[in-house]
Amino acid sequence: MTMHGTPPPPGADAAVPTSSAPSGEGHLTRGAIGTGDLVFFVVAAAAPLTVIAGGAPLAIGMGGKATPFGYFVSGLLLMCFAAGFTAMSRYVRNAGAFYAYIGQGIGRPAGVGAAYVAILAYNMVEVGLLAGFGFFAETGIDSVFGFHMVWWAWSLIGLVAIGALGYLKVTLSAKVLGVALVLECLILLVLDGGIFADGGGPQGLDFTVFNPSHLGDSGVGGMFVLAIGAFVGFEATAIYAEEAKDPARSVPRATYIAVGFLGIFYAFSVWMVLNAYGSDNAQAVAQGEGGPDMVYTAAGHFVGQWASDTMHVLIITSAFAATLAFHNGAARYFYAMGREGLMPRKLATIDRRMESPVVAVVAQSALALIGVLVTIAVDADPYMITFLWTNATGILGVMAMQLLAALAVIGYFRKDRRGFPVWRVVVAPIVAVVGLGYMIYKVVDGFDMLTASGDSTNAALIVPIPVVFVIGVVVALSIRARQPERYAKLTTVDVERD
Asked: What is the C-alpha to C-alpha distance for residues 404 and 418, in angstroms, rounded to an integer?
């Protein structure tokens, strides 16, 4: 076996196995996930209906006319990132994804730091989504069926179902996500079609909103948290590489399909919502009392009440699907870190019948439960506090990892491009680094607009990201000093294929 520290020869098509999982732990299901399944995992994690009906009104309230173009630019930037990311995926297959990429492209200490940030980020996002699921279920079921149950009861029911699906074979999760995804995309297309057929609302179709100058407007920082956050989860194509069929082809293909589809779909749908109220008036509506319901209201006006009611129901399944996707991704990070010995090795335990990371699933479920219980204990608003605050930290953490991963691509291919064109492994990653760096700056600068909180709260939400990264770096350096042989194997675990 060849260590990944010694790159494969130019033009090599497959990752070279390095070491298998620790003995007695089994392995994840091999060859179970095809390109379509990967796309479902990624797009379901993005939760299109939750993004448009739940997040777009907030984004419009902050970014105004800049919002549709903000989603489109975010998609273009992440396509640049995906170019190098997918090139590296041919040589690095690890359920820890960013951890392994950054470790092999920049250095093991940075990789371990990124792993700890990933665990923080994915857990924060899942906790927020679980609270969001409870909120949408409480309000949606009450609105459509007249049955009321408190949000946290719905969240706990969702957590049990998500934990069970996380334990069962991964192919079942893919089927659940696929059904939820198709339904939520269809209802959004119905809304878009209704607005478009009507001529675009009171001002007609306003194409001037795609003028880049709007990105200089105040409030775009908070808007970009929601815009970039709308794509969070496309890393799942790499997370599931160990379980994918023909990952050398399926991972890049699924990544491009997912990011390309989301970029166009989001920009068009947000543009339609903006047009529905008039581009000059939409921001005021979004900031007003009826702002949170502006997408449902538009559906009722341009399509019919049945569309609004359907959205109220499908946003519940959308939030559930997104929570499930992040739960599965976070559990695989726990699994990868346990396998590497960077967290308790029990986390790498595989249920041999289901071929799922059973202990990691239980640990992930326990953390999500704690998030719900804390929200209940402090009587926090499940949407405005738990959903928004945890996602703000989680998404910023993912953006930081994406920036490091783009740098890692440049470092990994610095001496040998392995037959890839310079635009894919040099130019595109540089564009991604510059773009992500600028967006991170804008996000931090406009963090208060997203959280509606003061400096102390915002600092408490941002500071854990660099702190956790530094802790990971210290852990790696400690292993290097005390166990150099073990240190040399970090980030190199790659499941051997027949």
From this structure: 21
CB 220 within 8 A of CB 241: no
Tokens in use for 282? 């939409």
358 closest CA partner among 346, 367, 350, 366:
350
Contact 96, 340 (CB under 8 A): yes
Which value, to the nearest 10 degrees, does the dihedral of the CA atoms of residues 16, 108, 30, 399 take? -120
What span, in angstroms and rounded, lies between the C-alpha atoms of 26 and 30? 11
Q: Which long-range contacts (CB under 8 A, 24 or more apart) does 337-342 make?
A: 337/96, 337/99, 337/115, 337/119, 339/21, 339/22, 339/25, 339/95, 339/493, 340/96, 340/489, 340/490, 340/491, 340/493, 341/486, 342/112, 342/115, 342/472, 342/475, 342/490
DSSP-derived secondary structure for 76-134 = HHHHHHHHHHHHHHTT---TTTHHHHHHHHT-HHHHHHHHHHHHHHHHHHHHHHHHHHH
Angle formed at CA 318 by CA 379 and CA 144, multiple of 5 degrees: 75
CB 96 within 8 A of CB 118: yes
Map residue 356 onto helix, strand or coil.
Answer: strand
**Quick check: 183 and 294 in contact, CB under 8 A?**
no
Helix H or strand E encompassing 377: helix 358-377
pTM for the full model?
0.81
Q: Give CA–CA dist 52/176, Å, rounded.
A: 21
> Contact at 8 Å (CB) between 15 and 98?
no
Find out whether 117 and 465 touch, Cβ atoms under 8 Å.
yes
> How many whole angstroms separate alpha carbon 156 and alpha carbon 173?
19
Looking at domain 35-122+168-303+392-489, its CATH architecture is Up-down Bundle (1.20)
Q: Is 351 left (phi over 0), alpha (psi -120 to 50) or beta?
A: beta
CA 36 – CA 240 distance, rounded (Å): 13
CB 227 within 8 A of CB 70: yes
Query: pLDDT per residue over 387-411, tens digit each?
Result: 989 988 998 998 899 999 999 999 9
* CA–centroid distance for 227 within its chain: 11
304: left (phi over 0), alpha (psi -120 to 50) or beta: left
pLDDT averaged over every residue in the chain? 83
Residues 93/444, Cβ–Cβ less than 8 Å: no
pLDDT digits (tens, 9 = 90+) for 278-334: 988 999 999 988 888 899 999 999 999 999 999 998 888 888 888 887 888 788 888
Per the document, the length of the chain is: 498
Q: What is the pLDDT of residues 409-449, one digit of tens each?
A: 999 999 888 889 999 999 999 999 999 998 888 888 878 87
**C-alpha–C-alpha distance, residues 390 and 126, integer Å:** 8
- Cα(152)–Cα(131) distance, integer angstroms: 7
